[in-house]
Amino acid sequence: MALVSRVAGDGRDLVMLHGWGINSVAFDSVLPLLTSDLRIHLIDLPGYGDNLESGIDFELDSVLKSLHSVIPKGASVLGWSLGGQIAMAYALKYRNEVASYLTVCSSPRFCEELDEMDQHDQIWPGVEMRILKAFTRLVRPKNKDEVCDHFLAMQALGSPSIRHDIRSLRKALAARPKPSYEALRFGLELLGALDLRQACRELELPSMHIFGDSDRIVSSDVALYWQRIPSAEVEIFAKTAHNPFLSNPEKFSSVLKNFVIRNS
After folding, report:
1. Per-domain residue ranges for the chain?
2. What is the pTM of this model?
3. Is 10 known to be catalytic?
4. Is 41 a catalytic residue?
5. Radius of gyration of the chain (CA)
6. Which of 85, 138, 236, 248 shows the greatest Cβ crowding within 10 Å of its Cβ?
7. How many other CB atoms are there within 10 angstroms of residue 174's CB atom?
8. Which helix (H) or strand (E) segment is 129 a member of?
9. Whether the predicted pLDDT of 118 surpasses 60
10. Which one is catalytic: 165, 242, 247, 253?
11. Is 53 exposed, middle or buried, given 0-12, 13-18 or 19+ CB atoms closer than 10 A?
12. Options 215, 220, 247, 253, the catalytic residue
């Protein structure tokens, strides 16, 4: 079954992929600031929202192929959090069909470990694997909705607009069917296993990477990795947590429009 895509606006094509436990409605509040200059394609990942019953196998290659069927050639592809890893993987697989890729509060390697590519043997800034595994064990078919709601609140920690951010995320979650247990497990397994650091170093595509300096989930220290890549641009938003499109929508939309238009 083909994935459902919502399209709004007119201009250069920008695809937006959401993060773990939520759906594409999370981006709706920033749409009015984007659609005058960009054609936005909002896609719920397989097992989420409008694509809850997509029938797609929960394997990365199957997910990428299903996205390829609805993403227009020449589009820029943006992903937030887990969606950022999928956007990176999509750009790597379909590099000749993508104008650029953008990530929001995302990392090519989610988990902390020794960074073997660093000459000083620094620790890669990420979540400890034991914490991810413990969180994964919490997710069960009967309590998955509770865990998702708790995670939405965690994302807003550190934001000066924490109450607004949590309300917006909960509203988005309630606006579509809740994600499937299989999709949630797949996403957590992907976060634990995927390491795109070397591949992205070698990918000669324009890219933009947005971080929040108060993000408790993905450290803004990951920006140092991208700053060493000539084709990458970085923006670190001050006083911003894991949801910059909610807490600072004007700056967020300005950065997106400027980058996409320059690189399309």
Report:
1. 5-262
2. 0.96
3. no
4. no
5. 17
6. 85
7. 11
8. helix 129-138
9. no
10. 242
11. exposed
12. 215
